[in-house]
Amino acid sequence: MPTSRNLALALAPLALFALASCGGGGGALPGAGAKAPLGAVLAEGLADASGQPVGAETYGGKLVGVYFSAHWCPPCRAFTPELVKFRDAHAAEFEVLFVSADHSAGEQKEYMDSTGMKWPVAKFKGPAGQGLARALGVESIPALVVMNEDGVVVTTAGREDLSADPVAALAKWKRHAPAKGVINNRLRRSAPARWHNASEVVSN
Q1: From the first residue on, what is the mean pLDDT of each consecutive set of 10 residues in the chain (204 residues)?
Q2: pTM recorded for the entire structure
């Protein structure tokens, strides 16, 4: 469990994204099918662990795992090596986008370096990354939301899928992922309004 100091520090920068807890259930995230404002995060700028710019084309033709995590969170540190191993084995089809809840850019870099994260990270505390977390209703970390490259959500239970059966996870996500440019309107109608508003207000 996180210390009271860590929880206080995590809750203080509410502008980052209003995380309520580390490792808890955190309340149900919206279901699959709606379009989240992924494009705005990519346009805001990506970097690798060394701070070098990374182009959005990194995600072309791949499933995208948006990973909300932080070094101060013990369950995050436990899950991240699983995700690193999975991503490295399937990098041709799956890439991670890290949205950090670390307390500083320095802590974010240390986390990425120490765990061997080879994937891009969103701009630290960038408005688009914060907006993506709010649109997705992320209240607890770690959270792994799998999307297609258009930002259409395949599953909000990426972490659970990987932990349960990493061999089957990718096939499951590919089976349920819509083709590029296709949004499942039936599922979209059933998604919470905040999803629609976010995708309509933010250009993708």
Answers
A1: 44 42 53 74 90 91 95 96 97 96 95 96 92 88 93 92 93 83 40 35 28
A2: 0.77
